[in-house]
Amino acid sequence: MKTPIKGIRRASAVIVTTGAVLAGGALTTPAHAAALPKPSIAAKGGFVMNNGTGKTLFTKAADTRRSTGSTTKIMTAKVVLSQPNLNLNSKVKIEKAYSDYIVRNTASSARLIVGDKVTVRQLLYGLMLPSGCDAAYALADKFGKGTTRSARVKSFIGKMNTQARSLGLTNTHFDSFDGIGGAGNYSTPRDLTKLASSAMKSSTFRTVVKTKSTKQKVTTKSGGYRYMSWSNTNNLLSSYSGAIGVKTGSGPQAKYCLVFAATRNGKTVIGTVLTSTSATNRTKDAKKLMDYGFKK
């Protein structure tokens, strides 16, 4: 009987020794790796995904509806770029109504001049870089349908909502072409990110939103020309390596918003922060989330 007992003791010793080796960390598995800490952001809502795979990388109140400010203009641009037989070089006459609208709403402006003729492509730059509400109005007037300006604007906003439904953005609705709307203008971090991801499939959109600044030659009322200079409100383009877009937003209800995207080593992360506390903090929030997204 003594021999079996000795055998058991030896086996026990082996087990103990093996346990000691494991405890000492000589053998490790991915399960023992420390989890990547989730970043803390000032924004009330946030979402990040891998643009290539669609995989969710971060969420914070990602499906809570909030005011979107000028990030609405991503949809404005997408509707324009989705028009059949679109001619980006066709010219649009700048009407006094667009200028009056800016003054009336104390809105962000591309400083378009009444009587000038500006191409659709140029209006997209004026829309997305300085966040021109006058450019948004001009595009809505151009691409909406109807015999009156108000009818055309209503038609264009209808197209924005149709586009939202076609993209499956169930928590998104627009009541304006630029974000200066009421309670009927809202989206979520997840929906806005999906919208931006879809918009980024357009090479024209990608080119516009990654542009830091541009100087555009437009035709004046007298047939001459002038240059319009626009700078991008998205300072990530100058402060975050690999940043490729996409749009800032702000407003009394929206506070500070940012839809962002960056590419590093072939991986693109794209996301949104809504209702951040300042322009500085929305940028910090976006940087934290992109850093996190690239590590995931």
Automatic annotation (TrEMBL):
Domain Peptidase S11 D-alanyl-D-alanine carboxypeptidase A N-terminal: 38-275
GO molecular function term, any single one: hydrolase activity
UniProt superkingdom: Bacteria
Signal sequence segment: 1-33
Pfam families: Peptidase_S11 (PF00768)
Record bears the keyword Hydrolase: yes
Classification via InterPro entries: Beta-lactam/transpept-like, Peptidase_S11, Peptidase_S11_N
Keyword DNA-binding listed: no
Keywords from the UniProt entry: Cell shape, Cell wall biogenesis/degradation, Hydrolase, Peptidoglycan synthesis, Signal
Family listed: Belongs to the peptidase S11 family.
Protein name, UniProt field: Serine hydrolase
